[in-house]
């Protein structure tokens, strides 16, 4: 595997490590919580928005993500906002027209109940995470427009011409990351589908007879409708289907399409399970999210100074509902890599005036981080391509309900290897094999 820009040197910092994080969303906040736990580290988070973003739809929290959050905060904070329903978090997959269950996606039986998958709303989840970020660590209305890497560190340049220097820069600024475009200049592109999403009070749908008390997805070729309670008295609707580039160009991220967009959905789903139409009839409007895509980074680090996490590294465009969980995994792997690269003060062969400081081998930490995440993320990207082949095979039977269901069930995957990926175990394996892969680098 090529290791461009991964130095074999051992540049160590003999003062508090200066860490800058771009982005204060779900992944950036999680990284701030984790990295602030390190000894002798000063973490500063920059968010271009004037405050926490209140837009967003539901979030699927999967086993891997919940295990990581349990390491970083009191998991009860998350349990209070999480919805699992009658089937302990299991997704029920239903036929688009009849609503009959054709597949299920449960967590593995050995998983503790507190870690089994569930659903929540992005806003309360972000509130919980931000409440655990050290006070004063986040600076809002700070828009980074460029950076320079020197021997002294990464010089981050802001739109007001100010700059700050860090020993390590963590890019958690999402799909449209300006830092990523420096290294992968290919433009973000529309991938052909739009997600329509809305969260609203569940009291609107309580009168609907036969409404499933679980998290369900109705499937048709290339189209999907998700309905679920989300906890805290909220209900969520998400649907994804193809729209022309011309129509998508009239939208933007989280655009409220009003009654016109809602009429579009009602017409689209008129022949689907009547439950869907009844839910849509209770809604007043709907938000649209054009699903853009960008190339995934093959190497998650640059210049021994910059680490990419979350959608800034691997924009999933909603695939598997795993974006947040994968970002949490990145944050944990980076934390453990820096922790392992730290030399405690008692072990430092330094003068007495320096004994209160820790040392960090940042290049080694970034190599550990990259190796821990590289193989897993590569497998996820490959699985997305394989799923495209399966979808084509299933769609060939679109006009034969029985055969379509048979093919769907034949190719349906629970993907527990992804949802329940053990990031800590992967890091331990990476550490144990370091002499082998480091020598090849």
TrEMBL record:
Which residue spans traverse the membrane?
16-35
The record ties this protein, via InterPro entries, to:
FAD-bd (IPR002938), FAD-dep_Monooxygenase_BioMet (IPR050493), FAD/NAD-bd_sf (IPR036188)
Q: Which GO terms describe its molecular function?
A: FAD binding; monooxygenase activity
Q: Does the keyword Transmembrane apply?
A: yes
What keywords appear on the UniProt entry?
Answer: FAD, Flavoprotein, Membrane, Monooxygenase, Oxidoreductase, Transmembrane, Transmembrane helix
Similarity section:
Belongs to the paxM FAD-dependent monooxygenase family.
Instruction: Write the protein's name.
Output: FAD-binding domain-containing protein
């Amino acid at each position: 595997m090529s290791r461009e820009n991964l130095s074999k040197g051992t540049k160590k910092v003999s003062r508090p490590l200066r860490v800058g994080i771009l982005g204060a969303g779900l992944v950036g906040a999680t990284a701030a919580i984790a990295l602030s736990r390190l000894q002798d580290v000063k973490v500063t988070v920059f968010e271009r928005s004037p405050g926490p973003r209140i837009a967003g739809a539901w979030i699927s929290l999967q086993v891997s993500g919940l295990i990581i959050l349990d390491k970083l905060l009191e998991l009860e904070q998350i349990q209070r906002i999480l919805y699992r329903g009658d089937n302990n978090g299991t997704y029920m997959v239903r036929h688009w027209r009849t609503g009959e269950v054709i597949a299920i996606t449960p967590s593995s039986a050995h998983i503790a109940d507190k870690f089994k998958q569930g659903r929540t709303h992005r806003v309360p989840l972000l509130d919980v995470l931000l409440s655990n970020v050290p006070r004063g660590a986040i600076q809002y209305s700070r828009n980074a427009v460029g950076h320079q890497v020197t021997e002294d560190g990464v010089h981050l340049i802001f739109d007001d011409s100010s700059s700050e220097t860090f020993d390590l820069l963590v890019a958690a600024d999402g799909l449209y990351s300006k830092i990523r475009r420096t290294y992968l200049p290919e433009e973000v592109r529309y991938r052909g589908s739009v997600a329509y999403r809305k969260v609203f009070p569940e009291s609107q749908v309580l009168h609907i007879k036969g409404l499933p008390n679980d998290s369900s997805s109705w499937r048709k070729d290339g189209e999907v409708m998700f309905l679920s309670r989300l906890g805290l008295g909220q209900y969520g609707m998400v649907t994804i289907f193809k729209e022309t580039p011309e129509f998508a160009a009239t939208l933007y991220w989280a655009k409220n399409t009003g009654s016109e967009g809602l009429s579009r959905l009602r017409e689209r789903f008129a022949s689907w399970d009547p439950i869907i139409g009844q839910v849509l009839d209770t809604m007043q409007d709907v938000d649209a999210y054009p699903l853009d895509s960008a190339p995934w980074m093959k190497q998650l680090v640059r210049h021994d100074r910059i680490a990419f996490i979350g959608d800034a590294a691997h924009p999933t465009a909603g695939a598997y509902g795993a974006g947040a969980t994968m970002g949490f995994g990145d944050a944990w792997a980076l934390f453990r890599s820096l922790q392992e690269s730290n030399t405690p003060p008692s072990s430092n062969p330094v003068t007495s005036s320096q004994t209160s400081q820790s040392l960090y081998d940042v290049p080694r930490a970034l190599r550990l981080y990259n190796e821990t995440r590289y193989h897993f993320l590569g497998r996820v990207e490959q699985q997305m391509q394989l799923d495209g082949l399966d979808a084509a095979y299933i769609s060939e039977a679109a006009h034969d309900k029985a055969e379509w269901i048979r093919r769907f069930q034949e190719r349906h995957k629970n993907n527990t290897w992804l949802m329940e990926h053990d990031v800590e175990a992967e890091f331990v394996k990476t550490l144990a094999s370091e002499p082998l892969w480091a020598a090849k680098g």
